[in-house]
Amino acid sequence: MSTRQLSERILASVRSEFYPGLAALMLVAALTLFLSTVAPILDIERVTIFFMLPILISATWWGTIPALVSSIAGVASLAFFFYPPRFSFYVADPDQVANLVVFVGVALLTSHLAGSLKRQAAVLARREKETRNLYELSRELAVAHSASEIYGAVQSHLASSIQRRVVLLRGGPDPKARGNPPADPGIPELVRREMAAIAVSEGRATGETVTDTATGTNWFVQAISHTNAGFGVIAVDLGARTGLEIEAIKRQIEAVLADVEATLTHLDIGRAIREAEMRAETDRLREALIGSVSHDLRTPLTSILCSASVLRNVPALANDPRLAGLVDAIREEAERHNNDIQNLLDASRISSRGVRPEYEWCDPTDIVNAAIERFRQRYANRRLKLSLHGDLPLLFVDSMLIEQALLQIIDNAAKYSSSDSMIEIATQARDDKVRLVVSDYGAGLTQAEKAGMWNQFFRGDRHALTSTGSGLGLWVAHAFVTANGGTIEAVSEGEGHGTTVWLELPVVPRPAEPLMQLDDALDE
Amino acid sequence: MSEIPPSVLIVEDEALIRRSLRAGFELQGFVVEEAWSGADALRAARQKPRDLITLDLGLPDMDGAEIVKQLRGWSNVPLIVVSVRANEAEKVRLFELGADDYVVKPFGMAELLARARAAMRRRVRMATGQVDLAVGELTIHLDPRTVSIRGARIPLTPKEYRLLHLLAQHTGNAVTHQYLLKEIWGPDHVRDAHYLRILVRKLRQKIERDPTQPRVLLTAPNVGYRLVGGQASSEGSRQIGSAPSR
Q: Is residue A146 part of a domain?
């Protein structure tokens, strides 16, 4: 450090300690004035101890240097005003000389202790803030779905810890693929070029200060990591600051970057970015695959279903029960097959990305009726007994998912009960829940079935030979209902005694609507 | 009663599906023509007016929505869209572009015919410019604005009347949530679906025999609502192809 810089630093610290020091002096002066008027009246002999007060106050409020200032001022004031001979710095009594010496010792120790305590508290507070920031950052990173989300989190973290405008150039594993700096008119061309240069050069660690002559602003450009250029590059807007101020900010940036780098290394941001990109790519591929499988499987089904339903209405076939039965069988099997395809696609989506409900306000009765209508397309002749509550609260759910789940339950009821038995569907309002109940008089459930029925690929042993299925339907239904905050449960009095399944969905408070929106006056 | 047989244009790239659709429509007395690409369909539709078009969305050459848009530029032929895709947003978009109805593959012929019939009836009614709308047992009078059911007048609030009227103007076809919300509460409320849910429930309590088993004001899942004539679902196949006599 050159002498010029050293003197600048001393000057800076003098400047920063000037007002606290002055305040400490004032404290001592005030105390001196107070004691010199009050002590003779109240006959206070030992004034020395009072001079500890300004020292303690200065130390805790302003730190070591103001505390030292008040110690020296205190000693001077004691010697000059209070110890005989008064109005001279000479102290005659050896007792009082000893007093002063002890006072100076205690004052020095106190100011040192209080000062370091204050420094520690400040460091602790800063650390706490940094830790909170870092914690916040790592939490955001952990849930980030894409590289841009990761960089968004890093950028806002930097901006909030440095308290300056920060531009971040995202990195990536491949130097050639590292992006161009954002084309923001607020970023000088020179800065953008420097960022790009650092981004593609592996291992150029030191930061550069770039001065934009047009606006007179300084920018500090640096790779986030000294070792891994893939972490990206930041540019910090230093404004018009110069010299020492820039040095101070640089040190701050270095400190923050060290923390960020440690966190990023720990979280392995390079891998996180690759994984996020891969996830997105896999999702796209899977959706494309699902789309094409769905199309390829359903196109032939459409011809089959369409043809069967055309044939079913041809008088020659309709009038011959045996032939009509054959056509019905074709239609029913095609419908069932279509349902299996739906379950397979749903299951594949659930296992790959979970269920993502799209919530909306809907009338539970509509959901039930939609499921029943679709059920009727499959089993036109099943007897259904409906007891639907007339005034259920609205639900905030993904109606498609609930409908699909309910359809699956009714479908299962039909599958495991004799075709001439009744299926009962009811809706009930209970406390803050809406319950959709499906009961059948069919095969019922054994203990083992009850335990396993919601599992993926579960198939009851009893039915393995008499019915087909993928064992996905109930699992999908369960996933759909749980994703909407609901529960699904099955009860049965045992084998052959029928099954009752209910879906329970939570009722959430509706946004208040002005009464006029709905209950306007009768149009009479 | 001698009538000109209705004509249908089937737009579908899968030959087997075309074949079964042709058989289904011909058995119901339709004159059938086919197209297997978007360009082909637009050309065929321009050649002469049809009574109905069924359009597959997954054509090799053109996006289905684009075909609907172009077609609606100059024709209001009843249009049923047929597709394996059942994406909600896409469905709503197609309705907004002017498709009359949407049938998800795989489907049965009866379902398609029922939708087709409703769409065709609506065109006829629009062409005749009736003052009063009759939907099953309901009669909606425009002047004065009253509604009666089986002859007895029923009191409706202005919003209930508005909803019923909007649906009646498109009888048989689904009207989207967004459209209804915008028309009844204004453009600021297109996302307040719960207003509509509650209004529909109140209206059903007045016009349906069993509000939990609606037969007149039906829900088109995830799209909107549709008004159907009281016995629409069981009208049977006798009427298919014959224009309503009213």
A: no
A300 with A222, same domain: the answer is no
Structure tokens at A481: 């209902």
Give yes or no for a cis peptide into A188 (omega within 30° of 0).
no
Query: How many domains is chain B partitioned into structurally?
Result: 2
Least CA distance to B196: which residue of chain A?
Answer: A518
pTM of full prediction above 0.80: no
Q: For residue B211, give the CATH number of its domain.
A: 1.10.10.10
The two tokens of residue A339 are: 């349902």
pLDDT digits (tens, 9 = 90+) for B66-90: 999 999 888 889 999 998 866 777 8
Q: Containing domain of residue B119, as a range?
A: 7-127
- B108 lies in a domain? yes
Q: Is residue B83 part of a domain?
A: yes
Give the CATH number for residue A181. 3.30.450
pLDDT in tens, A277-301: 777 777 777 777 777 888 888 888 8
- B152-154 and B175-176: which strand pairing? unpaired
Cβ atoms of B225 and B184 closer than 8 Å: no
Q: Measure CA of the first residue to CA of the last residue in chain B; give whole Å.
A: 14
Size of interface A-B (CB pairs under 8 A): 131
B104 has a chain A CB within 8 A of its CB:
no
Same domain, A27 and A168: no
Chain B residues 126-185 with a CB less than 8 Å from chain A = 145, 155-161, 185
| Domain span including residue A339 | 280-350
Window 355-374 of A, Cβ < 8 Å to B:
358, 360-363, 365-366, 369-370
Query: Which residue among B85, B193, B213 sits closest to A360, beta carbon to beta carbon?
Result: B193
- CATH number of the structural domain spanning residue A373: 3.30.565.10
Can you list the positions of beta strands (E) in A389-486? 395-397, 422-430, 433-440
Question: CB of A338 within 8 Å of any CB in chain B?
Answer: yes
Mutation target to probe the A interface, by most A beta carbons within 10 A, among B197, B209, B225, B226 is B197
* CATH, residue B117: 3.40.50.2300
C-beta atoms of B16 and A300 within 8 A: yes
**Contact B223/B167 with Cβ under 8 angstroms?**
no
Q: Which of B97, B127, B157 is the last residue of a domain?
A: B127
Pair (A370, A428) in one structural domain: yes
CA distance, residue B223 to nearest chain A CA (Å): 11
Quote the ipTM score: 0.75
C-alpha span between B118 and B240 (Å, rounded): 10
State whether A307 and B23 contact (CB < 8 Å). yes
Q: Does B221 touch chain A (CB under 8 A)?
A: yes
Give the pLDDT confidence of B154-202 residue by residue, as tens digits: 888 888 988 988 888 877 778 888 889 988 988 888 888 888 999 999 9
> Last residue of a domain, which of B68, B93, B127?
B127
Among A293, A312, A366, pick the best mutation site for testing chain B contact (most B Cβ within 10 A).
A366
Nearest 10 degrees: Cα torsion A79, A82, A84, A88: 50
- Spell out the residues 6+ positions from residue A151 whose beta carbon is closer than 8 angstroms to its own: A168, A170, A232
Residue numbers in A near B17 (CB within 8 A): 299, 302-303, 306
